[in-house]
Description:
The structure holds two protein chains of two kinds. Chain A is mainly β. Chain A contains no helices and eleven strands. In chain A, a hairpin with a 2-residue loop joins strand 5 and strand 6. The interface between A and B is medium-sized, with 28 and 28 residues.
Amino acid sequence: xxxxxxxxxxxxxxxxxxxxxxxxxxxxxxxxLYWYRQAAGRGLQLLFYSVGIGQISSEVPQNLSASRPQxxxxxxxxxxxxxxxxxxxxxxxxxxRRTGELFFGEGSRLTVL
Amino acid sequence: xxxVAQPEDQVNVAEGNPLTVKCTYSVSGNPYLFxxxxxxxxxxxxxxxxxxxxxxxxxxYGFEAEFNKSQTSFHLKKPSALVSDSALYFCAVxxxxxxxxxxxxxxxxxxxxxxx
Lengths: 113, 116
């Protein structure tokens, strides 16, 4: 089975502080990995996706960056958080690149004060 | 670019009644369509997908969806709603991404409330 771990589950940070959200996956190798942000409990915005180690595609220019240092690890970062970075961050993986659905982690809720 | 639209922010239905959550799509080529459900403060759970084949797709928890090419719709349905079906529902479409892979575009979500 595919398992996705997201850490931390909840985070409260002051404006201007750095951020690191971690996503690790189990039960698969060489997955496509995705970061989404959900604001105010509604729509999902695709932030980044990755097809392999060191390969990152960015969807929206913003205050965030992503890295994939290992096959099963996907990290979302910021050097200086903004209030608008608050939201629910979801990591997802797609094991079957041809037709497969996404599997999601349980999310990390970030509140920037 | 591919996209999906969910025209209803919220749908209310009485327990035991049939439910429909609407989704329309805009794609070039053959669409790959998905439905997900999200409970409060949780990740999304996959319900069902349409890739090709029968227009009526059956999924988890008694849900099904009907693919209609002429109306470019992929509505989610269930014959008899349960209070526990109350949640946020997302329609999604697969789009072409960079690096020879795919990305997934989600609708804005529809909140389903099943009333006892």
